[in-house]
Amino acid sequence: MKTILNQQLSEFFEFHRSRVTDEDICEMAKSDPGYGGYVRFLREVRKEGLLPEREDPDLWEVVCAPPVSLRSSVPLSSVPSLQESMVRYRNFVFAIAMGSIDTGANGDWIWMHPISWLLEDADRHDRRYLKLLRAAFDAAGAKLPEGVMGESGAPFFTLGMLIVSDWLADGPGKSEAARRLIREDGAMRATQRDDWGMASAGFLWDLQDIVSKDRLRVLKQMAAEIGNPEGDFNVECVLRSL
């Protein structure tokens, strides 16, 4: 197990580590034959603050599986305490996933999903947290190889930065994120063209396999709400392409 060295990813991880509880973990961990292992793994991470140095099957399972309360007969949305527990658990798991990029345990995950959940769970009026989230997106995306198939999360982290910058009404931040998004999308498509002899026609959305239409719908809606009162050229190019 290893400490997260990147400051932005470490601060994001510690923020959510300080909020999740052992009860959240026991309640929300994936309920299947591996449940005991997932709980032990997550409770150890919460206690020690250390992440795996290589791909870990328990980490893969908890990142890829949506949290589901063991009280399956009770809709989470009808019990505020369960809803809050789910959010704390989910954000903790995704903070682990992002931190694992730094420690070397990064799995072949569909990054669009945790990014969309982190955005949906964020309080848009909490500027301090939004800046923490944006910095973590920035650090995570920068550590993923640009234009490498199987690591197509970088543009989605940058889209997250663009969305958060819009919530912060940060014009220069939006412009920089839009410029980076255009570059990353182009780099990914150049790789696809080299590997397969063809380039996909769309912008951004077809860079990863989509296994959840609901998650795609949420992210697209957030992207559609981005404004450009500054009339920035890069932002306008991205908005016209999405």
Write structural notes for this entry.
The protein has 242 residues and is mainly α. 63% of the residues lie in helices and 0% in strands. The chain contains eleven helices and no strands. Helix 6 (112-121) packs parallel to helix 8. The N and C termini lie far apart (40 Å).
Distance between the termini: 40 Å
Mean pLDDT value? 82
Q: Which of globular, elongated, flat, extended, rod-shaped describes the shape?
A: globular
Radius of gyration: 18 Å
What is shown here, in short?
With 242 residues, the protein is mainly alpha-helical.
Layout of SSEs?
Layout: H1 7-17, H2 22-28, H3 35-48, H4 57-64, H5 80-103, H6 112-121, H7 127-143, H8 154-167, H9 171-196, H10 213-224, H11 233-241
Brief descriptors of the model:
11 helices, 242 residues, mainly alpha
